[in-house]
Amino acid sequence: MQKLHNTEDGRVLRKQMLESDERRITISFYKYWNIPNPDFFRNYLFVHWDDLEVKGRTYVSSEGINAQIVVPNKNFEAFKEDLDQISFLEGIRLNIAIEDDGKSFFKLKVKVRDKIVADGLNDDTFDVTKCGKHLKAEEFNELTDKDDTILIDMRNHYESEVGHFEGAICPNVDTFREEIDFVEDMLQGKEDQNIVMYCTGGIRCEKASAYLKHRGFENVHQLEGGIIEYARQTQKQDLPSKFVGKNFVFDERLGERISEEIIAKCHQCGEPCDDHTNCANDMCHLLFIQCKSCAEKLEACCSIECAEVTLLSEEKKMAMRKGGNYTQTDFHKGRSSHLPFAPQKDKLS
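Given the sequence above, the corresponding C-alpha cells read:
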C-alpha cells in the first residue's frame, strides 16, 4: 500500500534537516485550474513527491494548486519532468528562492482545502482567469515611475513591515480577505487609473486583480511572479530594484533579504531589526520581530511569562495544556498588546 501521509516525528525531521548538508532548492508555484477530484490529485502528488524526497506545504482544491516546497538538487530535473506529465502544469513557472540554504521545509504536507488561498470571495460571480496584465520587472519599474499609478501591496501587515516597494500603499491588515475589502473601498472613484498590485509570488494578485476587473476597474496590473521573480529579474538583467528590505516567506527561513536596508524594528526594544521569529513557548508561538539582544534576555520568547513557561517541566506544561489555563487572546501574527513596538491595528503603515 502506498504511503499517503507523513508519519515521522516532526521534531526528528526538523533536526535531520538542520544537520543535513544536502543541497536543496526552495521553490513555489501556483495555478488556478478546475480540478474535478482534488482528493485523487492530492494523493497522486504525495506519492510522486515523496519518492523524490520533496518537502514542503501544498494546498490543492477544486480551483487549483498552491505549492511552497523544497526539492533536492539531485532530483530537481526529475521533479520538473514529473510536473510536465500533468497537462495543466506543463512548463509552469517555478519561483526559485533568492536567499536559500535549502533548509526551508522539513516534511511533506499536501492538503485538500476549499480554496488554495483563503479570500472569502464568491468565485461563481467572476472569472478568475480574467486577471490583471502581468508585468515583468522592467515594465513594473516603468509603470510605477508614473505619478498617476497606484501601487498596492497585497500582503498582510507583518509581511510589508519588513520590506516593500518604494511608494507602495501597505494596508495594515491581518488577512487577505480583509485586504480585498480595504483595497476596493480605497479605490472607489479611481476606476480609470493605473493600478499595480504585488505580493510574494503572485497568487494573491491573480485572484485580487480578477476581482477588481470584475468590479469595474479597467487598468489593473500585477507583478509577474511577485517579489521573488522581480528580485531574480532585476539581478539577472542588472535593473534598478525598487524593493526595500526583506521579503517575508512562509517557511522556516521567515524571510529572504532583497536589499540591505532594515526598515523594521524589534517589537520589544525598538532597535532596528527585521528578523521574524516564533515565540519559543509552544503554547504561544506568536510570530513577531526580535533582535538578538532581546532573544538572549527572554529566551527567544515574546514575554517574561512565556520565558518562564519554557523553564517548566514537560509534566507541568502538559498540565497547563490540559487545564486550558494558558491563553493569550489578543494575539495576531506580528502584533500583541504586550509588544510595545509592534504595529497596532488602528494605525496605517
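The chain has a mean pLDDT of 91. Try to locate this feature in the C-alpha cell string yourself.
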